[in-house]
Amino acid sequence: FLYFVSKKMLMLYVLDLDNGTYRSSSTKHGVLVGDGEFRHSPDQIVRNNEGEYLYLTEDGGKTVGVYAIHTPTGERYAIFESYYDKYVHDETTGLAFSIDGSKMYAAFQD
Do 78 and 35 contact (CB within 8 A), yes or no? Predict the structure, then answer.
């Protein structure tokens, strides 16, 4: 599978390269598990080592943070987010995982 996001269209696309098909879903989903929200542009997308989660960062919105999608179920989670007017239009960037997958790294850009 090939995963990519569109900031302009606020969409996540999953291409099945073996079967020549794709599916898409909105990244402007609203309330997530854990009371988080994703309400702006997806920016970076990273898959964890086990492949069960896709992680997205948010660019320039009111809820800057890191979000996850459990790919087998489609369930969406807020890993962390800022929900305060002071951070409107800031950005979470540089999402990465340690080689063993035990640590997540992210940067905050204002």
Answer: yes
